[in-house]
């Protein structure tokens, strides 16, 4: 066998092993198909809670980790569900000072949840640059306004879905619904995001089906004093703070049929 054939064979093997390693290392979250209508009321009694995503470890702090005081300070158990038109997120959040925000500050420097979602199942999971079908969505977990933001600053051409809401006090997701119930340790948050809000004439609407997988991550953002100069902290399900600019560190969301 010619040396170059061996070399290419070895390189191919190493590439295959590398890709296999990558596939094994990519965490998967599950969104369950809705079996009964989800009522956005802050109660998760109608939810499939069999596969929670947890953010509760020091290793998941991605910004301001030195401020993290443990799971009572900030942690969450998060559930995902879907129907043909919507992604649902339910979160049992522990936050020693919930519903905290500062007027004019970014939602990711307030109490909020960040959702990272690709609407293109065919996207290259190793891509390091956002594509127009990659979305960073921020949901304020305050007790009444439920403002939202979509961050598209990492895209050269956002294809008509521009950055909005990044300085607070805006509702940028059409059809969005959210509700919250305060608990002893924080709150239960429940929200509905229509897939149509992540589509336009240029960006096709995502149509979930059982077995479909897309790039995905979750972020918890927290402040505990609504004063200028107070540091915010962020924790992520997987990856580092680089998830904000690169989908390469995201995990995967699997759309599962109802059992
Ligand atoms: Ca409910
Ligand atoms: Ca807080």
Walk me through the structure.
Helices cover 9% and strands 32% of the residues. The model has no long low-confidence stretch (mean pLDDT 92). The termini are far apart. Strands 1, 2, 3, 4, 5, 6, 7, 8, 9, 10, 11, 12 and 13 form a 13-stranded mixed sheet that branches. It contains 1 helix and 13 strands, in the order αβββββββββββββ. It binds calcium ion (2 copies). One calcium ion binds at residues 38-39, 41, 43-44, 46, 190.
Please give the count of helices: 1
Radius of gyration, in Å, reads 19 Å
Give the distance, in angstroms, between the N- and C-terminal Cα atoms: 52 Å
Report mean pLDDT, rounded to a whole number. 92
Number of strands: 13
Shape: globular
CATH topology: Immunoglobulin-like
- Runs in which pLDDT lies below 50 for 5 or more consecutive residues are none
Number of domains: 1
Helix content: under 10%
Tell me about the largest β-sheet: 13 strands, mixed
What class would the helix/strand composition place it in? mainly beta
SSE order, as H and E?
HEEEEEEEEEEEEE
Question: Nutshell version of this structure?
Answer:
With 259 residues, the protein is mainly β. The chain has one helix spanning 3-25; strands spanning 28-33, 53-55, 61-63, 74-82, 86-95, 112-118, 134-140, 148-151, 177-182, 186-194, 213-222, 233-236, 251-256.
């Amino acid at each position: 066998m010619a040396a170059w054939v061996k070399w290419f064979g070895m390189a191919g093997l190493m590439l295959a092993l590398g890709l296999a390693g990558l596939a094994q290392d990519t965490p998967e979250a599950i969104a369950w198909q809705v079996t009964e209508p989800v009522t956005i009321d802050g109660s998760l009694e109608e939810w499939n809670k069999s596969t929670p995503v947890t953010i509760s470890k020091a290793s998941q702090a991605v910004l301001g980790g030195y401020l993290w005081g443990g799971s009572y300070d900030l942690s969450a158990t998060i559930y995902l569900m879907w129907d043909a038109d919507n992604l649902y997120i339910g979160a049992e959040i522990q936050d020693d000072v919930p519903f905290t925000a500062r007027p004019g500050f970014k939602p990711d420097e307030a109490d909020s949840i960040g959702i990272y979602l690709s609407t293109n199942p065919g996207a290259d999971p190793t891509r390091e640059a956002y594509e127009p079908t990659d979305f960073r969505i921020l949901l304020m977990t305050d007790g009444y306004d439920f403002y939202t933001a979509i961050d598209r600053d990492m895209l050269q051409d956002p294809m008509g879905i521009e950055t909005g809401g990044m300085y607070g006090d805006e509702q940028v997701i059409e059809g969005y619904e959210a509700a919250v119930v305060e608990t002893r340790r924080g709150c239960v948050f429940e929200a509905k995001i229509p897939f149509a809000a992540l589509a336009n004439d240029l960006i096709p609407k995502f149509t979930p089906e059982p077995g479909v997988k897309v790039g995905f991550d979750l972020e918890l953002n927290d402040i505990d004093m609504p004063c200028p100069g107070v540091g915010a902290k962020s924790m992520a399900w997987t990856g580092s703070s680089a998830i904000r600019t690169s989908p390469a560190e995201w995990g995967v969301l699997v759309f599962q049929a109802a059992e």
